[in-house]
Structure prediction request, 492 residues.
Amino acid sequence: MAEKKHKTAKGAIEWDYSPALESTSHVQLKDRYDLFIGGKFVKPSSGLYFDTINPANEEKLAEVGHGNAADIDKAVKAARKAYNEVWSIMPAKERAKYIFRIARIMQERAREFAVVETLDAGKTIREARDIDIPLACNHLFYYAGWADKLEYAFPNRSVRSLGVVGQIIPWNFPLLMAAWKIGPALATGNTIVLKPAESTPLTALLLAEVIKESGLPEGVVNIVTGFGDAGAALVNHPDVNKIAFTGSTNVGKLIQQAVAGTKKKVTLELGGKSANIIFQDAAIDQAVEGIVNGIFFNQGHVCCAGSRLFLQEPVYEEVLRKLKDRIQTLIVGNPLDKNTDVGAINSKEQLDTIHKYLKIGKKEGAEMYQPECPLPAKGYYCPPTLFTNVAQSSIIAQEEIFGPVLTIQTFRTVDEVIQKANNSPYGLAAGIWTEKGSQIFNVSSRLRAGVIWANTYNKFDPTSPFGGYKESGFGREGGIHGLAPYVKLEAL
Ligand code: NAP
Ligand code: MG
Prediction:
C-alpha cells in the first residue's frame, strides 16, 4: 500500500493511504424490491415504493416496497397459516436444518451481504465484513443448534412455542438485528413477520432471497418493509402473540402502551448511555483503544456504545492526551474503503440530531474537541468528537446522542464513579479498565447495566445474553436466555 506522511496545521503527523476500495462488482442490486410475504415477493398493496439511499454519497440505491397495515395483515395471515399447518408441527430437528441452511447460504454470500450493508447503512466495510455478517451467521448457527434441545434449555418443563411473532428492528446493525430476532424465534417453533428500519431495508431483502433459496416453508418468515406505521400496525395486530422490538426508548414506550391489556408478550431492547470507566491502575494504551472501539466504532451508532467516559483523576491528563492523539489518526470517509475507521452517519436526520447535541454541549459550557480531518463533500459525516468539562447533569451526559460523541468526566473514588455511572435513565452496558480482578468484581456487581466488559469493550458472542436495565428495556437476546422470550413453559 502506498503511504506517505504529512503534517497537519497543528503539527501532528498523519499518514496518507492510497484508497483501498472494496469491489462492488459482485453485487447486483435490483432497481426495485417488493415485500416478502407467504414465500413470495409481492407488490405493496398501496402500489407505493420509497427510495433507500447510500448515506456515504446521498445516491439512491434502490426502491423498496412501502408496506402498510393491509400488507402487515396479509403477512400475519401467512405467518399464522404457516404456523398452524407446517412449522408448529414439524419435528424440531427438521426446523434446525432450515436454520442451518439459511446460515450457510448467508455465509456463502457474506461478501455480498457486507457490501450491501455498507452501501445502505454507511458503516465501514471493515465492520460489516468482520463483525456484522459473521456474527449474524453465528447467531443463526447457534440457535439452529438449540432447536431440538429445548428440553435441556428448560429442564423438567414442557416447552411450547407462542405462535406468530412480530419483530421490529433498527438501522444500526440491520442484518445482525434480523438474525438476533429470527434465530431464536424459528428455533423455538414460531413464525415471523419482520419489519426492517426504513433507512436500511436492503440486507433484510437479501435475507428474504436466502430464505427463499433455503426452501423454508412459505410464510414461516415474512418481511415487510415500510415506515413506523407498518411497525405500529404489527404491534396492534390482534393475531400477533409476541412483539420483539429493538429501537429507541420513545418507540419502546409507545409499544408498551399499545400492548397493555392484551395477552401479547413483549421484549424491548432500547437505548443506552453506557459508562466506560478507567481506573488509574489500568493499562492505559489498551484502555485508549477500548475507548475508541467503544464509541467511534460504527460512528457511535451502537446502543451499548461507551458514550460516557469516566477517568480517575491521576490519569486524566495522560488518557486525554493519548485519546486526542489517537483520534487524530482515525480516517473518516468513504465506508467502502478498507482504511476507513469512521464511516457515514446513517441518515440526514441522524446527522441533524448529532449536530443539535453538539450545539447543546457547547451551550452548556462543555469544551468540544474534534481532530482536523477533511470530510467528503457529499454524504453525512461527523468527525470523532470529545467533550470535556461536562457536568453530571448536562444534557449531553444524560441523553443518548447515537453518534461519535464522547463525554468525559473524572472521579476520585470507587463509590463516586458507581454513583455517577448509575445516575442515568439507561442501563445497557458498561466497561471497566483496571489491573485488579477484585475491583472488576466489586464494580461490576454494583453497576446497574445488562452487559459489563472488563478490559475490553463491544465484544459480542451468540452464546452470551444481551439486554438492559431501566429504560434500556427488558428481556434478553443471545445465549440460552434468548430462547425464553419465545416460549411458553408448562408443567410436564
Ligand atoms: P426507532 O426510531 O425506535 O426505530 C426502530 C424501528 O421501529 C424501526 O423499524 C422503525 O421504523 C420502527 N418504528 C418507528 N415507529 C414505530 C411505532 N410507532 N411502532 C412500531 N414501530 C415503529 O429507532 P432507530 O432510530 O431506528 O434506532 C436507534 C435506537 O435503537 C437507539 O435508541 C438505539 O439505542 C436503539 N438500539 C438498541 C439496541 C439494543 O439492543 N438495546 C440495539 C440497536 C439499537 P422506521 O425505521 O420506519 O422509523
Ligand atoms: Mg440506506
In short: The longest helix spans residues 125-146. Residues 52-53, 120, 199-200 surround magnesium ion (ligand 2) (CB under 6 Å).
